[in-house]
Amino acid sequence: MDQPVLKLTSISKRLKGKDIVSDVNLSVYPSEIFGFLGANGAGKTTTIRIIAGLVKPDRGQVTICGFPLDRDFNRAMSNVGCIIESPDLYRFLTGMENLQQLAAMDSRVTRRRIDEVVEMVGLQHRINDRVDTYSLGMKQRLGIAQAIMSRPKLLILDEPTNGLDPAGIAEFRQLIRRLAYEEGMAVFVSSHILAEVQQMCDTVAIISRGRVMATIKVQEIGSDLIVEWQLDKPALAIALLRDRWDITAEQTKKNTVRAAVEQVMVEDINEVFISEGIRLAYCGSHGSTLEDLFLNLTEGDEIV
Ligand code: ATP
Fold first, then answer.
1. Nearest atom of ligand 1 to the alpha carbon of 16
2. pLDDT tens digits, residue range 230-249?
3. pTM, full prediction
4. What are the residues whose beta carbons fall under 8 Å from the beta carbon of 39, sequence distance 6 or more?
């Protein structure tokens, strides 16, 4: 597998005596759209501010394209384009003038690249109009154009569709997919909207009260059940699942093992566990739509 574009290792942050982000680990790869899904106040913006170097973590490491953010800030950040909260735009200048202002500060950006990004975000017909005549969706697209001008390997977006109408959201989703697949960019995008994340992202990390509860490939969501066993020999259960059924299971608590399993197999698995001397205290399951997973993992954090 490629080197991750973004890697967080054991990131934690306390603010005013409260754990805001706790032991967050994740990796984002080239061309991957990685969703960071959590309810209001779950810790998404704080994590994003840590990744963008705006907040210093108390513990842990952020690495961007192999460069540790704390020791090699400039080289790490030269690979990042981001929009945090809303894009920084001069309202009384045209879209093009906004882009030129920024390009003047970055020797990597040519006139040709400016035209290319304008076309990519679909603003060619309005780029010479003043920004204060733009709709919210157009401002968002201009913000993306700014963020991608220098061909960053990682694009970071904090709740980018807030305030967009459904058509704007659909356009935005297509744009992000094109950037990831055509330009090979990794996109890290936070959201509290389940359906949006499911439609836009390849991978989703569910965050609740500052902790990543699970990281899920969207493609794998759907058909299997998520089964949880409480038993006395978790290591043996995990090994049996792997060796007999090629199922990857994880130990979630001291005596708890969880795996995605086809419904018809659960009975067989339980029989084998018992015949191998495992004492089974509990076996429960729930569906594996993103909503099921979210509600189960976050114990009902409110989300749209
Ligand atoms: P939202 O979707 O509402 O923006 P979020 O997931 O982005 O939520 P954060 O903004 O990261 O969440 O906030 C997480 C928690 O940290 C919240 O409870 C917030 O009140 C708290 N918090 C954020 N910044 C500070 C700070 N500077 N001092 C104290 N607490 C803070």
1. 29
2. 999 999 999 999 999 999 99
3. 0.78
4. 192, 208, 298, 301, 302, 303
